[in-house]
Design brief:
Length: about 180
Amino acid sequence: MDTRSSLLTELDALPARWDVHGTLAAPVEAVATLLLAVAEGRVGDDNLLILARASAARQGAMTVMAGSSTDTYRAEFAGPVGPVDIEVDRARSRVAVQSWYAGVHHATACPAGTRVTHRVLRVLPEHPGFAAGIAEIGLHARMARDLGQVLAVIADRLGCPQPALPARAEPPADAISSTGPT
């Protein structure tokens, strides 16, 4: 019996710190297929789309490798930034990443088609990719921008209308500080 904790199991126990979402006029199965596409190789629009716009990925310096169990992966960077752990839950249409933050992208059916939500649940200030004051420089706005880019790629691939800008909930009162979450 495997008793190892999974990234998604750990994150399921945490409250969301930040949350953004957007809607696509497309079936959840089609959206999830593109959102959850993760395999060994270079990160791009066809592989780990949620990180394809990261600086390292745009420079061709981010590569996905298989993890220790089914649907777990690790993205390695060229340079000093630490790796990203990835876990895909195809049955529940979600993918989690852990770098200096832990977040989950989730596709669910809604009356307009598919709602894609990105939640940040944990922050690791000791991670080499963390920068003090990140919340103050617009993490929430960056999350909305990044999700908008992901949704635009999916909409283009599926031939559905481009989504409106993602919506976001207000950040909590305990935003990230240089000492980490409270």
